[in-house]
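We keep the chain:
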Amino acid sequence: MKSDASPTARALMALELVQGSPGITADRLADKLGVSERAARRYVGILREAGIPIESVRGPYGGYRVGRGLRLPPLMFSAVEALGLVMAVLDGHHDASDPTDPVGSALGKIVRALPESVAAHAEAVRRTTAPAPDRAAARPDPETTTALVQACSNHRRVRLGYRSEAGSEWVTEVDPWAVVVRHGRWYLLCWSHSKDARRAYRIDRVQGVEVLDDIFSPPADLDPVAMLEDHLAVGWEYDAEVVIDAPVDTVARCLPRTLGRLEPLDAETTRLVGSTSNPWWYAEQLAAIPAAYRIVRCPELQEVARVVGSRLLAAGEGPRP
């Protein structure tokens, strides 16, 4: 605590200490604040006068704690804590980004109660989330995510340390356009200067972030979610083409856009054109199509589909209970 801090600042710090360490004693509180015990008790009195129910218990196991009251005491979060809270809620509730949903409404109230410098980062992530949490997805580091969201907001170039799924590591400079949550995974949509191309990096694989002095301007018509989904559908190792015996509107409702581009061949038939680095995952996604389909391009995907199909057939031949 700065020696020249105002009484209001010290009172708020006292509240944060009592909230974070229920049962904190007057001498410990005074030590943390850098004041005498008498002054620490005076700051507790200021909080009580403001209507915050600070309780005190005497004895060797006593101390100060925030009691139950009619009003929620002021919430004080760091940027990392606030973003971590938003991330946790978005992971666990599929409508947390919807302001009309009860959980989404409650989350919005918390964000609005935060200081602008903290709330801006949390709200930026909340606006670009997608209602499809995946509990098996790796969670990114909140400090790394905070640094990237802030760089996006300030239009500052960053130097990333990155580790791919295969274990390769490299360092690259990028213009960070947006942080996007899609299907339970956190991505940085950006322009890579080393590749001179658009890229989407998994934030849980970012090893380090260095904010640089260079300023950039993002695309004027940037739609982060749509651009990310288009990006994730192309440029991978295995190119695929699938013909589906169903109208394009029906297929679009049951397949994620990250599988590729849908084209109507006629009123009752659709073509899917995409790519993947993981034929097993792609084949499993195709199995959800409620119609007959044919893989007309990609031998690797055809082979995997035969294995997946044989497993499904074997599962259906088990003894009946």
